[in-house]
Design a protein that fits this description.
mainly alpha, 0% strand, 244 residues
Length: 244
């Protein structure tokens, strides 16, 4: 009997031990499942925050690109007006009375203090270069935008440096050779003899050179960049609409 009691006691103990092991394993599984669920929720919340942050960034980029397009349009419009005066000054025929009035008002400033440049600010590039984008479609598009901004900054900077150097050279020439220079800078009226320089071949050559470096290079770069920005705006707005 003792043998059977011992065997029974041993069997009961083994059964209890197995139940304990199964219970412990079940507890561990529940803990692991709880941890996995918590991690999943945390990752989901983080992903949601990241997506919202990236969407906010994309919207900011769209708005900045629109502002940059407006600024580019202002410069292009001003350059279109200047181009008309270039043509008036460089044409072979005698100008009409109306054209003479335009030339009288604007010709002295064509290659001195009357030129407008964009001075594009690197806001978009700064935003994009300091942000990690995880959404692949958005990342590809923003990478293209950043690349185009970097290229535009480079190309426009080169043109602007050439233009500024030319403008300063023209101003220095007038400063060193004409005693009415202070009138030009100060907005004073030039008399007929003083104004004669702006009808000379020497001045026309300077205007022709400015037209070359401004209209054939700078204007072209601005127009190309504006076209790229409008394309990016359209694509980015479409992508944001699809995510709604």
């Amino acid at each position: 009997m003792r043998f059977f009691n011992k065997a029974r006691s041993k069997t009961v103990s083994n059964s209890r031990f197995k139940k304990y092991i199964l219970y412990a394993i079940g507890e561990i599984i529940l803990v692991v499942i709880g941890i996995l669920i918590a991690l999943w929720i945390n990752n989901w919340n983080q992903t949601k925050k990241d997506n919202e942050r990236q969407r906010y960034l994309a919207q900011n980029v769209v708005e900045q690109m629109k502002r940059d397009v407006v600024e580019i349009d202002k410069v292009l419009e001003k350059m279109d007006e200047q181009e008309q005066i270039y043509e008036l000054l460089l044409m072979d025929r005698e100008p009409t009375l109306e054209e003479k009035v335009i030339l009288l008002n604007d010709a002295p400033f064509l290659v001195t203090v009357g030129f407008t440049i964009l001075n594009l600010e690197p806001k978009v590039v700064n935003q994009l270069s300091n942000t990690t984008i995880t959404q692949q479609g958005l990342k590809d598009l923003l990478d293209d935008i950043e690349s185009d901004y970097n290229s535009a900054h480079e190309e426009l900077k080169i043109s602007e440096e050439v233009i500024v150097k030319e403008l300063l050279g023209n101003l220095e020439y007038l400063r060193d050779n004409y005693d009415w220079y202070h009138k030009l800078i100060g907005g004073g009226d030039l008399d007929v003899s003083e104004y004669a320089y702006f009808r000379s071949t020497h001045y026309k050559n300077r205007v022709a050179h400015m037209e070359l470096i401004a209209m054939d290079s700078y204007y072209s770069n601005l127009y190309t960049f504006k076209f790229a920005l409008n394309s990016h705006i359209e694509k980015l707005e479409l992508l944001l609409e699809e995510e709604n």
